[in-house]
Amino acid sequence: MKLNEIADKPGARKSRMRVGRGIGSGKGKTGGRGGKGQTARTGVAIKGFEGGQMPLHRRLPKRGFNNIFALTLCEVNLGRLQAAVDKGRLDPNAVIDVTALVQAGVLRRARDGVRLLGNGADTLTSKLQLEVYGASASAVAAVEKLGGTVKVLAPRKETGEQAG
C-alpha cells in the first residue's frame, strides 16, 4: 500500500445535496421545505409551538425548586475505607481527610466534602482518625468503638428557640 492509494471505504463520504437546482434534482422548487408559510422562511424557531394551543411545557404544573445553597457531598462507607487500608492505599495512623481519600483513589474528586456512612461497619478493623464534613451516628459509633476519632467539620445546627 502506498500513500496515494489510501482512500475511504465506499460510502464513507456522502456527497452534498444541492438544494433548489431544478425539478430533475429531486430537491428543486421548494427545496425540501414543503409549502409556503412561516416554516418555509429562514430564521424560524418554533420548538414548543403547538399552533396557538397552550404548549405542553406551560400546561404542566411547576413543581419543586432548586436549592442554590445545597452542598454536593461525596458519600463514603466504612467498608470502602477498610478495603483501602487493607490494600495499603490509606495509612490508618495518619489523619484521613478529603485530600487523602482522593489521593488513595477512594474518591474521584473532592466536591463540597465527604459524608461518612456506616455501611460495612462490621468489616472495620482499623483504628482510624477521620476528618469529614458529616457523618452518620452509626458510622461515628463504629469508628469510636475501635478507639478511632471522627471530627465533623460541618457547622452545628442550632436547636433552640427562634429569635423573634
TrEMBL record:
Molecular function via GO: rRNA binding; structural constituent of ribosome
Annotated GO CC locations: cytosolic large ribosomal subunit
InterPro entries referenced in this protein's UniProt entry, alphabetically: Ribosomal_uL15, Ribosomal_uL15/eL18, Ribosomal_uL15/eL18_sf, Ribosomal_uL15_bac-type
Single GO BP term: translation
Database matches in Gene3D superfamilies: 3.100.10.10
This protein's record includes keyword Ribosomal protein: yes
Composition bias type Gly residues, residue spans: 21-37
Domain of life: Bacteria
Subunit organization: Part of the 50S ribosomal subunit.
Official protein name in the record: Large ribosomal subunit protein uL15
Annotated source species: Rhodoplanes roseus
